Amino acid sequence: MSISTPAGDSSRQTAPPAAKKATAGAGRPPAARGGTRGSGGSGGRPVNKGGKPGGGGRPRKPVTPVKVSQGRSWGPIALFTAVGVIAAAIIGYGVYAVTVGPQTWQEKAEGISGISDFRKTDPTLVDTRSHKSGSIQYAQLPPVAGDHNVSWQNCMGDVYDAQIANENAVHSLEHGAVWVTYRPDLPKDQVDTLASKIQGQEYTMMSPFPGLDKAISLQAWGYQLKVDNAGDSRIDEFIRALRVNASQEPGVGCSGGVTATGTTPRELQQQGQ
């Protein structure tokens, strides 16, 4: 026998499954229900709008690291630059030495502007160097080579204040001396400048010489250079290139020669002529 339930009595009707599920969490705290709306199911942790933990309204922008400038270190740069310059100089010199090589004294002499090289223009004169007595006539004045007196003029950096004999001077040139001559009217300050280049320097000598067509004339065996001023840098170039190098009797010194002045050769002086 079945018992019927009146249609208006809903208290005794069985709730649908969906309704049971909706009321399953009734009476429990929000935390126990698995979070409230907006919790995102994260177990109670606050979530920002971007869906990431941490709370807040807007998502955080990544922080850009701040670079701290410590300045440029110039010490190592300067050191490397200096090393590079030195290395380049060494390499450059090595290339020059291999391809060009050092200059010979003849090449240095040829490089002097205005120099006269009688070794090329008059080789017979340069090869003539016998000892002769008495006065000798020379094609060049002051003479640069040729026959000469048996005695040489002392050429140990001697500065003579009067003219000396050509015959004795040429013998000094044969030994490798450089003979500096100047007009007697050359100003004293220029004479002093010339003397400073000669004094104390072996294989050099200096004396006045009347009638020069230039203020100063320099002689070495087979070479001559004429200039207008004692400050001319070619004077030093001439002395450096030709002193000793132009010698026709290597190893023969300049000491022990004639120290007297005058245009008369040594043996004629001794004879009173």
Automatic annotation (TrEMBL):
<keyword id="KW-0812">Transmembrane</keyword>
<dbReference type="Pfam" id="PF11303">
    <property type="entry name" value="DUF3105"/>
</dbReference>
<keyword id="KW-1133">Transmembrane helix</keyword>
<feature type="region of interest" description="Disordered">
    <location>
        <begin position="1"/>
        <end position="69"/>
    </location>
</feature>
<feature type="compositionally biased region" description="Polar residues">
    <location>
        <begin position="258"/>
        <end position="273"/>
    </location>
</feature>
<protein>
    <recommendedName>
        <fullName>DUF3105 domain-containing protein</fullName>
    </recommendedName>
</protein>
<feature type="region of interest" description="Disordered">
    <location>
        <begin position="253"/>
        <end position="273"/>
    </location>
</feature>
<dbReference type="InterPro" id="IPR021454">
    <property type="entry name" value="DUF3105"/>
</dbReference>
<feature type="compositionally biased region" description="Polar residues">
    <location>
        <begin position="1"/>
        <end position="14"/>
    </location>
</feature>
<feature type="transmembrane region" description="Helical">
    <location>
        <begin position="77"/>
        <end position="96"/>
    </location>
</feature>
<feature type="compositionally biased region" description="Gly residues">
    <location>
        <begin position="35"/>
        <end position="44"/>
    </location>
</feature>
<feature type="compositionally biased region" description="Low complexity">
    <location>
        <begin position="15"/>
        <end position="34"/>
    </location>
</feature>
<keyword id="KW-0472">Membrane</keyword>
